[in-house]
Amino acid sequence: MAKKAGKLxxxxxxxxxxxxxxxxVTMQGLATPHTYTPEKKPFRFNQEQVxxxxxxxxxxxxxxxxxxxxxxxxxxxLQTAAELGRPCVRFNCNGETRxxxxxxxMRPAMVEGxxxxxxxxxxxxxxxxxxxxxxxxxxxxxxxxxxxVLHPVLEEGNRTMHIPETGxxxxxxxxxxxxxxxxxxxxxxxxxxRFAGTGPLNSALLGRFGMVIACGYPSEEEEIERxxxxxxxLNPLYVNSVCRIAATLRKDKSFHTDxxxxxxxxxxxxxxxxxxxxxxxxxxxxxxKLESATDAKVAKKAVVKLFALEEDGEKESKP
Length: 319
Ligand SMILES: Nc1ncnc2c1ncn2[C@@H]1O[C@H](COP(=O)(O)OP(=O)(O)OP(=O)(O)O)[C@@H](O)[C@H]1O
Ligand SMILES: [Mg+2]
Description:
With about 325 residues, the protein is α/β, with parallel strands linked by helices.
């Protein structure tokens, strides 16, 4: 039975119910996709994650997506927006992000034939006014000066945005929603040293996120489906093998690197292009990225054993 979720008050837009692919969750989408609707990419949705995201949308709560690198936080939001035809603006936060990048700034403009200054609205201003979804990617990399300005926008149920340049206060559109991601939020804060440029999220900011969606790495079966949707023509036995390595290394207490879904997809694409699952494909996609000599040793050992490979050599037998 399809679950109802994501009901929003109706405005002049035409809304349709959309059952999110691979799940039984129904959310409200737009009948006609918007110019700012993200492009659809290969993606395998997870029932639980979509249920949680739909609940955040239904309750008008800001959702913080946490989890290790490359587990699918960004694409979960963008691909859900793509399924729904919803406009979604992504801000890649970093130490250089300024308030004016989000809200807008005064720019020279010709007004009635004379050069003057006019307010040029930033993407966040447009999103608040027009009811887009916004996604603050890597919010733990933004400076507190920037995140502080976001507080009124994050006020669930009473979102406003003040534009000092024009004196205007914009009321948030009923479709406006906020998502953010961070590698180091909450229990992962102890890993901050591995994510250069991140800082602690101040508790006033984190407290304004009504919901935290934890996106860990998926089960081995689900990861196989995720990788396969990127390399549909690759022999699934190869995909099974690379996902088995990831599952094995993630469980290995002597291996400390995040083994991401992203790197598995890269590995599978290299195998497909070279038509070989030899040691070199593993070196190109995985081994050379491992900074710790111990991790490299553990990974090599697992690959050589599971793939029955000769180091620097061809595979002895097909998977
Ligand atoms: N559920 C999924 N189905 C198919 N592909 C996926 C899925 N989740 C992630 N991927 C793929 O894995 C890669 C990493 O995903 P994404 O960028 O969303 O991860 P992330 O958690 O935001 O990573 P980071 O923390 O580095 O920003 C992308 O190529 C994406 O297409
Ligand atoms: Mg991301």
